[in-house]
Amino acid sequence: MLKIAWSKEYAHHLPEGHRFPMLKYxxxxxxxxxxxxxxxxxxxxxxxxxxxxxxxxHDPAYWHKLKHLQLTPSEVRKTGFxxxxxxxxREVRIMGGTVEAADxxxxxxxxxxxxxxxHHAFTDRGEGFCLLNDIALAAQYLLDEQKxxxxxxxxxxxxxxxxxAQIFREEPRVFTFSMHGGKNYPFHKEKSDLDVELPDGIxxxxxxxxxxxxxxxxxxxxxxxxxxxxxGVDVLATDKLGKLAMTTAGCKxxxxxxxxxCHKNNIPVVASxxxxxxxxxxDIVEAHxxxxxxxxxxxx
Length: 300
Prior knowledge:
Blueprint: E1 3-5, H1 9-12, H2 19-22, H3 24-35, E2 43-44, H4 51-54, H5 60-67, H6 73-79, H7 85-108, E3 110-113, H8 134-144, E4 151-155, H9 162-167, E5 174-181, E6 194-198, H10 204-222, E7 226-230, H11 248-264, E8 269-272, H12 281-299
Parallel strand pairs: 1-2, 1-3, 3-8, 4-5, 4-7, 5-6, 7-8
Keywords: Hydrolase
Protein name: Histone deacetylase
InterPro entries: HDAC_classIV, HDACs, His_deacetylse_dom, His_deacetylse_dom_sf, Ureohydrolase_dom_sf
């Protein structure tokens, strides 16, 4: 069964002024239920991640400041959100969703988090709407609990997974692969194990050819026994921040390529949604919904 982390907290505890792009956290589950792709049984309510697990990845001093709402004004601005207890609680629950999804993926082959993909969170700071790094926390959990020996992060959000790259810079058991806009945020890039920088305006055929050139070879080279997929839909031509020129169909083929390779190679995969900032919320929801439709078709 496809298990999906979702909580009302994902959508209902965001500050005013940030509601529109985050409406997807409310509308996406409704769309998937309405069309019959999933039922209520597919959802699980994640638990907040424990402090002990957060500190496996994040610096204690940073976590103390975040937990006690003591970030400086500059640090708050870099996160992009006004700091509040509700926001921190929301983030900690999202973290728990991806960690719990990892266990479900080991059982069923695939699992999803309606939120997550918070790849701009570093060990000691937050940036770009990311306070803590769910992919890093879940990968570290699998390694620490000896549930995986080699993890591959496939980050296909339009923005480089800079925080994830920094966190695992010295960790040979995690291979970070980021395929992102070369001239897009973050303007100072970290060094992933493999970075593929995309030119502005790249279209479906060229994008998919690049992904198909790299990902199958990475599976052979890295030999991962677990994969995290950051499936941001800010690669769309309609995205206000993306600068690429992909169609919804092209984005769907991107997801198909990743998920089919995981299924074919028996690699458990967790997908986190990442970014999406198209002007029409329907474009965001449709592109994300395709990821879930494909997971159901391919794995079940």
